Amino acid sequence: MLAAGALLGSALLAVPVAAHATAAPDPAARSAATVAAAAAGLDDPAKKEIAMKIVSSAENSSLDWKAQYKYIEDIGDGRGYTAGIIGFCSGTGDMLDLVEYYTRVKPGNVLAKYLPALRNVDGSDSHAGLDPNFTRDWAKAARDAEFRKAQDHERDRVYFNPSVKQGKSDGVGVLGQFIYYDAIVMHGDGTDSTSFRNIRGRALSKARPPSQGGNETTWLNAFLDARVWAMKQEEAHSDTSRVDTAQRVFLRKGNLNLDPPLDWKVYGDSFRIG
């Protein structure tokens, strides 16, 4: 943009000033503003707050994502306990990682005594060594600011930062980065066929991301098609409304920057960010 602006300025030097007394606003300035707006990623604080609310609408049927630090239950999806702001699971390793990190930050915390049990139940839906008091102690830990910060840290390290990084690498904007984030929250990024990386690989067989010369909307539709396929492989995730009546709504409207106002539905419930 600096080079283009310099050339434009040189050209204007040869033109009488009077001829430009009523000129339209500088197109270079408009372009710069557009580029600056497009450069804001999902990691912009305002956009990140929107992302947290939309995910919470699907995960917790509420926009109040900060109320979810204390949330914990077994939802019957084969992953044991699901808990916290992003659905850390006792059966998938991310809850173990969280409690290990929390214990490094704050040794002797109320959850530290469950570390042996969390290691033993990893990879299963078992509650062995966790019941009957784990859910009570989780809620107690959620009153601790250090535990809430630990949840934020692990959410960003494992899910948010990798999805934003991949989105920027693929050349997609805020909506695309959010679409990636929601996918990795649900599916993780392991090696199984429904993981984030394999959803992306399935989409690559149908379209190309902007970084490879593809159209952004076409690419995101291909990614969402692959995401829906992945969701339907598992009964617990077979309701695809978080894609159909939320993410696709934003995409159809061309809202690639995820700008409010935003209206969507998940599981039949309506939500709005004004």
UniProtKB/TrEMBL annotation:
Signal sequence annotation: 1-21
Keywords, in A-Z order: Glycosidase, Hydrolase, Secreted, Signal
Keyword Repeat: no
Entry keyword annotation includes Ribonucleoprotein: no
Stored CDD domains: chitosanase_GH46
Places the protein is found: Secreted
Reactions catalysed according to its record: Endohydrolysis of beta-(1->4)-linkages between D-glucosamine residues in a partly acetylated chitosan
Top EC class of this enzyme: hydrolase
Matching Pfam families: Glyco_hydro_46
Major location category of this protein: secreted
EC number from the UniProt entry: 3.2.1.132
Top-level taxon: Bacteria
The protein's role, per its UniProt record: Aids in the defense against invading fungal pathogens by degrading their cell wall chitosan.
Family: Belongs to the glycosyl hydrolase 46 family.
Protein name: Chitosanase
Protein's organism: Streptomyces erythrochromogenes
